[in-house]
């Protein structure tokens, strides 16, 4: 028995898991239509590679991965591609997304496929390829492509493999029932993972102590394999990746880092089963175990459900009573989201369809004022101050929100669960997070625009300066050519041309010369300019006395000379400072 | 089929704010029973009168603010304020003292700041301090504890008490007197031992002042119930009681004539236990985090001792709590917990770099 650590906070909502565990994993009749969304994972959506009207076999690739962080999609059953279009998908916002619809032919005929038995002798690269080609993404929640997760790069060797069998959300029993019935295959999947990761020192299966049957089912299969099944007291949200890692290793993943940075990989136990099927049986991920539960369905149990099965199909075969149902939730009662309609399909991350009655999950009561009782802070698994976050969320005080580590919130809902004032705290945090993300994006955009503008200005100034220098150089050359024999210092009739030359010389010299030389040069420039200023002023005074017409020209020349002088003085001051 | 859209979490615990308030009310019962046993009907009359006034005021202001009266009154928070104020006020005080205090608590200290959850100061203590400063004579007259009543005199009955409160009847001689903290403060020429021997308030007591020790034990019992029920954590009360005990032990001075009194006397006298478990635990006006509440409690403990030992008013808890209310937002800025994945605690005033 390994040591375990205790996370702060957490809550103990009623588990409600027994209802769906009375029967074994069932199989539903084939639905008439299957709708496969192209983006069931984190990363780029897959690209369809079939056409409407095309016949496909079960397991055939219907969409290809778009890049590294993406996965292909496969036909969950045989039939005809009947549509490639936007459909409502399982998303909290009820948005539409590209999907491939297959009208099934009822034959459920497999495409030719073959697995490998001696995966131990296959190169990890080859195994990862099989997993990527099988379209496997994390089945616990986020849906991150597994092949990417299992390939953290050579500079980050994986020493600890954690298999997440916690299933801490109430009601959900998909993993529990899968372990009870498929322990051998699951353990084989873990062995494949071990081979891919070059046999990590520690392999843990983390599981809550409310699943004694599952623990027992695993025991004979892990014996002598080096895999340890670690059970720990049931508490929500122990199944969060960061929480589970802490419970099993006592280590925290630093904010903003990944488990791989600490030499760990954490993978859902359902995914290990999919990996076994992919490698040993050659089957892509086209079905998963989904719990159908809640008092608004007459039959509560787990089903091996084809990806793309409409939720309505599941409900129709579970004696669903729409009138008694307060809401339909994909996922559990703590982190699941409500479905806008039953038309949306089951995807690779759908572990549960929860249809609770009004008695189980009543309509929300109106929120009362926050009295800062602190029950939320006691429940928070990452030691935030939810009551303060709520306060600053309302005030839209982004600085304070970030200082209170808003972005470390895992949105587990423990704070809202305990809130005696019924405040939908998590909703506030989600809203604030997106506000801050939007503000950051806008700041990046405006910074970018400003930099571009400043660079443009700089470039224009530079071009102007270069032109000016070329002009002066030409003039200087002409001047030198014409006045070569005479003494240049005495031939200063007016200020303009010679001034520019001197200034340009000073500039050019300042660019290359040592500080001492620059200083000497500048001092000379200043002395010359002072001389010229006196001369110019005298000329101006004479012109004024005589009332001659070229007064304005001369006064401009005086002004020009004075400016040049000041510039040179400023430069000298800068140099000597 | 179209279903209702609601954000997660969908499950909620059954505990409601009104339940929390009801539990707090329930937890005052042992203390209130001890008060009534030791000092007669006065406190019950205070509590009832304050409760009626508070609910009427709350309803009136909520109505004026255009909010749902039923929704806001049913949170029981006005009742909690009223009960705590009624307990804190002297038994048999004239009715108008109670009404003025309660009106001030509910209307000024609570509703004008925005109602439940928005008041920076503890409403009951604001009401208490207002009447303490305004009506010092009425506020410093306490009923004599049971054990000290002169031969043949008993606490006035319920009817007589009502007469005293509402019609200004003067109670019989010997029914009112000083409190132990008051008496102790004004016996500065004597050694502590001498005070304990000569002053019947102490001579008749078992651990501290006669009568008061039971009242404090009653509130301690209620407070422990609330901690067991997880209505609040131990941090605030332990901070205050610890600091008060430590200070009185440090300044005990072997019971000399200038000693401010023993730790036992301070812990079991006046409003110590009421303050520790029912006043400073008001979450709205206190610090937020556990560490913050510990510091907030310690601050109150220190202030209580300082005011009792060297201040002019013996009613230290009310002033200490109000002063600490001022400090609560400041304490909050520096007492954030360390979040998972961070090496350090942060400060609330920190700005993002860059």
Q: Could you please describe the fold and organization of this structure?
A:
Chain A is an alpha/beta fold and 577 residues long. Chain A contains 15 helices and 17 strands. Chain A folds into 3 domains: 18-112 and 123-354, Rossmann fold (3-Layer(aba) Sandwich); 375-436, no CATH class; 494-576, no CATH class. In chain A, helix 13 (496-512) runs antiparallel to helix 14 (515-546), helix 13 (496-512) packs parallel to helix 15 and helix 14 runs antiparallel to helix 15 (551-576). The radius of gyration of chain A is 37 Å and the shape is elongated. The relative contact order of chain A is 0.10. With 354 residues, chain B is mainly α. Chain B folds into 2 domains: 16-177, no CATH class; 188-209 and 223-334, no CATH class. Chain B contains 18 helices and 2 strands. In chain B, strands 1-2 form a two-stranded antiparallel ribbon. In chain B, helix 3 (42-64) packs antiparallel against helix 5 (77-88) and helix 5 packs across helix 6 (95-110). The radius of gyration of chain B is 22 Å and the shape is globular. The chains are: A alpha/beta (577), B mainly alpha (354).
Taking all residues together, what is the mean pLDDT of chain B?
90
Amount of helix of chain A: 40-55%
Can you count the helices of chain B? 18
Give the class of chain A from helix and strand content and strand pairing: alpha/beta
Distance between the termini of chain B: 50 Å
Strand content of chain A: 5-15%
Helical proportion of chain B, percent range: 55-70%
């Amino acid at each position: 028995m390994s040591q375990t650590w205790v996370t702060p906070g957490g809550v103990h909502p009623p588990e409600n898991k027994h209802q769906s565990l009375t029967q074994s994993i069932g199989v539903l009749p084939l639905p008439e239509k299957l709708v496969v969304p192209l983006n069931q994972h984190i990363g780029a959506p897959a690209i369809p590679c079939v056409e409407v009207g095309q016949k496909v076999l079960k397991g055939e690739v219907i969409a290809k991965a778009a890049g590294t962080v993406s996965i292909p999609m496969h036909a969950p059953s045989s039939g005809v591609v009947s549509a490639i279009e936007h459909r409502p998908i399982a998303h909290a916002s009820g948005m539409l997304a590209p999907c491939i619809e297959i009208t099934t032919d009822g034959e459920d005929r497999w495409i030719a496929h073959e697995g490998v038995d001696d995966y131990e002798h296959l190169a990890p690269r080859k195994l990862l390829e099989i997993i990527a080609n099988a379209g496997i993404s994390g089945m616990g929640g986020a849906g991150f492509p597994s092949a990417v997760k299992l390939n953290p790069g050579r500079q980050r060797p994986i020493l600890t493999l954690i298999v997440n069998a916690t299933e801490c959300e109430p009601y959900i029993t998909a993993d529990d029932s899968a372990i009870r019935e498929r322990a051998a295959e699951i353990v084989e999947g873990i062995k494949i993972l071990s081979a891919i990761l070059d046999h990590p020192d520690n392999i843990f299966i983390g599981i809550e102590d409310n699943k004694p049957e599952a623990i027992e089912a695993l025991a004979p299969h892990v014996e002598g394999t080096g895999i340890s099944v670690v059970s720990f007291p049931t508490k929500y949200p122990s199944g969060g990746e960061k929480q589970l890692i802490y419970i099993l290793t006592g280590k925290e993943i630093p904010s903003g880092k990944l488990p791989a940075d600490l030499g760990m990989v954490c993978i859902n136990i359902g995914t290990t089963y999919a990996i076994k099927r992919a490698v040993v049986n050659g089957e892509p991920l086209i079905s998963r175990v989904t719990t159908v539960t809640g008092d608004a369905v007459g039959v509560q149990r787990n089903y091996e459900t084809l990806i793309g099965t409409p939720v309505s199909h599941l409900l129709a075969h579970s004696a669903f009573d729409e009138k008694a149902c307060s809401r339909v939730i994909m996922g559990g009662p703590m982190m699941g989201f409500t479905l806008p309609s039953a038309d949306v399909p089951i995807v690779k991350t759908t572990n549960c369809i929860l249809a609770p009655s009004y008695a189980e999950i009543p309509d929300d009561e109106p929120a009362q004022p926050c009295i800062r009782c602190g029950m939320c802070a006691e429940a928070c698994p990452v030691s935030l101050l939810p009551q303060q976050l709520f306060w600053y969320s309302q005030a839209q005080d982004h600085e304070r929100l970030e200082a209170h580590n808003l972005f470390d919130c895992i949105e587990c809902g423990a704070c809202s669960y305990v809130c005696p004032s019924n405040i939908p705290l998590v909703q506030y945090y989600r809203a604030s997070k997106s506000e801050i993300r939007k503000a950051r994006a806008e700041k990046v955009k405006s910074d970018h625009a400003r930099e571009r503008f400043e660079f443009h200005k700089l470039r224009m100034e530079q071009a102007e300066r270069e032109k000016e220098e070329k002009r002066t150089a030409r003039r200087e050359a002409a001047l030198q050519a014409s006045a070569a024999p005479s003494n240049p210092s005495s031939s200063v009739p007016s200020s303009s041309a010679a001034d520019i030359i001197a200034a340009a010389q000073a500039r050019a010299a300042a660019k290359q010369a040592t500080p001492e030389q620059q200083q000497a040069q500048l001092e000379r420039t200043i002395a010359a300019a002072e001389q010229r200023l006196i001369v110019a002023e005298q000329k101006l005074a004479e012109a004024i006395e005589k009332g001659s017409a070229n007064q304005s020209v001369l006064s401009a020349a005086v002004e020009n000379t004075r400016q040049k002088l000041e510039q040179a003085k400023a430069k000298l001051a800068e140099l000597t400072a | 089929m179209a279903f209702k859209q609601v954000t997660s979490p969908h499950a909620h615990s059954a505990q409601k704010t009104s339940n929390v308030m009801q539990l707090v009310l329930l937890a005052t019962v042992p203390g209130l029973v001890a008060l009534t046993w030791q000092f007669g009907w006065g406190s019950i009359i205070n509590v009832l009168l304050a409760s009626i006034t508070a609910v009427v005021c709350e309803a009136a202001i909520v109505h004026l603010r255009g909010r749902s009266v039923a929704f806001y009154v049913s949170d029981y928070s006005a009742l909690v304020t009223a009960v705590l104020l009624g307990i804190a006020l002297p038994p048999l005080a004239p009715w108008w003292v109670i009404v003025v205090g309660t009106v001030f608590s509910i209307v000024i200290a609570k509703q004008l700041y925005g109602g439940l959850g928005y008041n920076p100061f503890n409403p009951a203590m604001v009401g208490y301090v207002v009447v303490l400063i305004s009506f010092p004579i009425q506020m410093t007259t306490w009923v004599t504890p049971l054990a000290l009543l002169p031969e043949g005199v008993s606490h006035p009955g319920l009817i007589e008490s009502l007469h005293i409160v509402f019609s200004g009847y003067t109670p019989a001689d010997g029914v009112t007197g000083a409190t132990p903290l008051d008496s102790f403060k004004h016996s500065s020429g004597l050694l502590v031992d001498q005070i304990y021997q000569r002053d019947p308030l102490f001579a008749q007591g078992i651990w501290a002042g006669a009568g008061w020790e039971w009242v404090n034990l009653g509130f301690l019992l209620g407070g422990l119930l609330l901690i067991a029920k997880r209505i609040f954590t131990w941090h605030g009360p332990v901070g205050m009681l610890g600091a008060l005990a430590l200070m009185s032990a440090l300044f005990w001075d072997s019971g000399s004539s200038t000693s401010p009194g023993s730790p036992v006397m301070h812990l079991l006298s006046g409003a110590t236990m009421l303050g520790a478990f029912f006043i400073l635990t008001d979450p709205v006006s206190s610090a937020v985090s556990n560490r913050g509440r510990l510091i907030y409690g310690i601050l109150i403990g220190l202030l209580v001792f300082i005011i009792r030992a060297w201040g002019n008013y013996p009613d230290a808890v009310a002033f200490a709590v109000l002063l600490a209310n001022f400090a609560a937002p400041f304490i909050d800025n520096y007492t954030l917990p360390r979040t998972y994945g961070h090496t350090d605690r942060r400060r609330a005033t920190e700005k993002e770099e860059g």
